[in-house]
Amino acid sequence: MSSKPYLVSFPGPEAQPSSTSMVDAEALDAYSRVVTSVAEAVSPAVVRIQVATERGRGGSGSGFIFTPDGFLLTNSHVVHAARKITVSTPDSGDFSAQLVGEDPDTDLALLRIDAPGLQSVKLGDSRKIRVGQLVVAIGNPYGFQYTVTAGVVSALGRSLRSQSGRLIEDVIQTDAALNPGNSGGPLVNSAGEVVGVNTATILPAQGLCFAISINTAQFIAGKLIRHGQVRRSYIGVQAQTVPLNRTIARHYDLKITTGALVLAAEPGTPAQKAGLQEGDVIVSLDGEPVEGVDVLHRLLDEQRIGKASDVTALRGSKQLELKIVPEMRPS
What we know:
Elements lengths: L18 H24 L3 E8 L4 E8 L5 E4 L1 H4 L2 E8 L3 E4 L1 E6 L4 E5 L9 E2 L10 E6 L7 E15 L5 E8 L11 E4 L3 E9 L7 E5 H14 L5 E2 L2 E7 L2 H6 L6 E8 L4 H5 L6 E5 L2 E2 L3 H7 L9 E7 L2 E7 L2 E2 L3
């Protein structure tokens, strides 16, 4: 009886999951768990905002409730010039909202609704976030309610131009996908804490999305709760940033290379009363270097309202020292 050899087959490499693929699968599962838990925790406090204006035109955006008594944050551009604001909550239905106040300079607005059993988000600390950190955005893009996208923090400390023309400082850049309707929704870390207010995308670029830091938002919300507006000072100039004449800058030992050129000093304003004229270049305010319009705007805060300040300006080849009393900027 002849013996026949027999073959024993072993599973090939494709049948044996590698340790690398197992690690990848575990990481993906952990990622999914984080996103899922964040969405479940935060979504009940995310609202859809629908706006009607005097002309009858409507718009929509997102927002989030951050106090149990119905205060919620969104973007100023979502609710600006609204005649009627309706807020839709996931669990309680639709409610008419009161606009407590808005600040176009930071593109933030504060609303309030009167509704029972509201869920609110937990606010984090945007100073603690790091580049590369996982973040989740929740909102209502194109009316698709409670849409969740995830990504990472791409950069910190960005500046973004608001619709009022001022720079919004300390902006978070993320690649978590945002679309029209996401504006005003929360940007959330892996612990379920809101670290930013989604505000803008750069079109047609992909993955360039921005959120106002929650620390800025909390500061502005406090001002709006107390005053209904954010008080800032102004001097009444139209200005633009220009390079300084290097010879003149060296002569006066100026440490800056640019300043704020006065295009016009409006009649009756602090600038006109102080003697600022068209063509003057402002280079310092109370000893603080003024490298341009954005720096001047930042220095003109609430603390300078009604307080005499020292302005240094160049008029041709001469350096002027003027006294100016900033006033509260009209809303």
